[in-house]
TrEMBL record:
<protein>
    <submittedName>
        <fullName>Biliverdin-producing heme oxygenase</fullName>
    </submittedName>
</protein>
<dbReference type="Pfam" id="PF01126">
    <property type="entry name" value="Heme_oxygenase"/>
</dbReference>
<dbReference type="InterPro" id="IPR016053">
    <property type="entry name" value="Haem_Oase-like"/>
</dbReference>
């Protein structure tokens, strides 16, 4: 059994996902900042292509019927189209849509969605940085803007859905693995984008 799960099986899923992927998060955070995405519009363009690779690859998950049953409202949340609009705002070509990731089951997919939705929470900082190079929620930084309900409320609602799932230990383990796979995918996409 996964060490995190074994150590604290009583923790709600969201906390286990966080504990199980926090070192991955920190490495991705450091890699993104190390790539200096807000130093110039040119570097921001590389960041947008990275976001395009990630959000494009997971876009179809937001449409999946089984995942929408588990997480009602999921289909309202994808940010892929906003990333494409950001590229167009900056006069950049929108690359072909990346191949969709195929997590082995819904529980792994939930880990990927945790990674994506959580990234919108940390995006508060990225959004502020993007404003310093002249971008906004209606030009170039649409996909980093807060949800209309506010980032905090939106995140708490998503966490409540995760923590309300009736889920076995094996399924939790699959979700944690899915979150790690998502961060790993992001790390590889980052290296290919900058
Ligand atoms: C420079 C880049 C990044 C910075 C500075 C950053 C920063 C943060 C911060 C400050 C939080 C906590 C926010 C809060 O609790 O109010 C957070 C949460 C989170 N971020 Fe990032 N982040 C970055 C990139 C990413 C990326 C690229 C991903 C995913 C691909 C990601 C996924 C997450 C997730 C899943 C959470 C939620 C953690 C939880 O369970 O509470 N972050 N981030």
């Amino acid at each position: 059994m996964n060490a995190i799960l074994q150590a604290s099986p009583e923790l709600p899923l969201s906390k286990q996902l966080k504990a199980g992927s926090s070192s991955d998060h920190d490495s991705v955070d450091n890699l993104v900042m190390g790539a200096r995405p807000f130093e110039s519009l040119e570097r921001y363009g590389c960041f947008l292509r990275l976001q395009h690779r990630f959000h494009g690859a997971i876009d179809a998950l937001y449409e999946q019927a089984q995942l929408n049953l588990l997480l009602p409202g999921l289909r309202e949340l994808p940010r892929y189209q906003a990333v494409c609009a950001d590229l167009r705002d900056l006069g950049l070509a929108v690359p072909a849509k990346p191949e969709a990731v195929q997590p082995p089951d819904a529980w792994h997919a939930i880990g990927w969605l945790y990674c994506s939705e959580g990234s919108n929470l940390g995006a508060a900082f990225l959004f502020k940085q993007s404003q310093l190079i002249g971008l906004s929620e209606s030009h170039g930084a649409r996909h980093l803007a807060a949800h209309p309900d506010g980032r905090g409320l939106h995140w708490r609602q998503f966490v409540a859905l995760l923590d309300g799932l009736d889920i076995t230990d094996a399924q939790k383990e699959a979700a944690i693995q899915g979150a790690r796979d998502a961060f790993d995918f992001y790390r590889k996409a980052l290296k290919a984008s900058f």
